[in-house]
Task: structure prediction
Amino acid sequence: MTAWAEPFSYDYAPYTGRPNIEWPNGARVAFWVAPNIEFYEYAPPPSPTREVWYRPEPDILNYSMRDYGNRVGFHRMADVMARHGVRGSVSLNVAVCDHFPAIIERCCELEWELFSHGVYNTRYLYDMTEDQQRQIIRDSRETILRASGQDLDGWLSPAISNLETTQDLLAEEGVKYTLDLFHDDQPMPVKTRSENRLVSVPYMMECNDVPVLNFKNISPRNYLSIITSHFDRLYAEGEESGTVMCLPLHPYLIGQPHRLHILDEALKYITGHDKVWLATGREIAAHFEANYYDSFQSWMEGAA
Amino acid sequence: MSLISDDYFDYPNRGPQMDQGHYGIRYLRDLPKFEWQGGASLMVWVTVHLEHFPMDMPRGPVKPIGAMERPAPSVWDYSSRDYGNRVGIYRLMEVLDANGIRPTAAMNSVLATRYPRLMADVLKRGWEVAAAGTDMGHLHHSGLSEAEEKALVAEAFGTLRDVSGQPVTGWHSPSHSQSAVTPDLVAEAGGQYICDWINDDMPYAFHTRAGDLTQMPLSYDLSDHKILAAQHMPIEDYEYQLGAAFDMMLAESRERGGRILSLSLSPWVIGQPGRVDALNRLLTRFMSADGVATATGAEICRQWTALELEA
Result:
């Protein structure tokens, strides 16, 4: 395999002098919540690239920690979001459709969007051929359609395992937007080898409960202000040109008793602002594609 | 030639069940509404880990929180863990006594004979003794042969039953680490409940080759091990998180039926002079709220089983 020194998925685009984005109804921020509904396997096939579990298998501590999200955390989280009128855009390991159909039913009742986060979170794209990656994308499309009647429009690579061709394949397979790039606070055109358009939608690791609570060991006491400070700045900047705020969450973390109130307070705070578009990933990508994809593209060509 | 073989895409377990055979799928919100005996909605279950960390303990393959960290021989690590069994535990006893709480003592069995005075003070208070392996240098994991592991389980239950005179029906795998057969061996040794899996806030039936155990919800993310020793958070963050968990679980228990709030405590961690008062404040608040009761793990397990809520 040749070395891969940069993603080649986008051109440099400074956060100044860009075409202005206007969201529906004069909103400054397109706010969306992305619950990651995941299935980590008890005994996954080994990956040539990455240790799947942290302890010798069976790693029942880490397996069961994640299973909590599906048994307990999901419904709690859904209750809080419904109370605030906020829909989810689910980053879904599509095997959840087969293991936990009741979860998918509730997502559909709540009119949440389903997009793919691979088949299982213990199956990475690493080491796959193009055909094998395509197989995962097509499985996702078929499974989501069967379980919910929805089209597969969005994509977040399982465990963010990207290969050089992943974004090309997504575009070729008709996926509309990707979350794999963390390079911007606004949607962006993605460069691929396909004629089809692919939009990058911001997915914010800075506010994601896994890095915050699991990797960085930040206290829940500080998590709410991380979210609200992030929002405040994007809301202010959005007066000039529309921004995107994403809250990526995991029911196994935010759905725990000592953390659920953070979601409640964060949504109360954000929905308390009048110039917020409560959107889904699909809606943000479609609005950008229809109104700004071309102007951003030609601006970038001029700016380069 | 791909590094990923074709059968990688077969997914033999992909269907309406888990991918291991230990339990069925149950959503907590589907539990019927019930009350604990005496009418309480929230049951506070305190577990005190009594742990012995040998100075020459192996440093892998599973490293428990509290394992020797510094170059061997680490008297620093050893003595600051042993502190819990000398000093911290007596502070905890005072706080628990004052709040009318009899916890489950999840004990490494070597402590039963190593510190007889400690054991006597545990028994005198009517605490439940549960088996938690032999010591922290002998964790349960898949690197052990079944015969080796069976001997550890037998030694832990045997010693603790002999010394305590209690039936000793609870089991905790130290550091929540199991091999694939730990639950089978625990059931074969007469265990009735385990508290190692952290996928629920309520008990559920856990299948083994020797019949069902009850899996009890011992907290991990809310343990002092995790928050104070592994994540290095100040005590204020512990107090905040436990307080938030209590508020949420009490509200949920009133709305949806009986719940358990688990406190997982380690004397070498929470028994420090600058921390134990926070625990006292929390427990005083918890136990003075309406609809809150407390019991040992074995008692809660018996109440749960008698409810026959699982179809």
Chain B touches chain A through 56 residues (CB under 8 Å). The two ends of chain B are 49 Å apart (CA to CA).
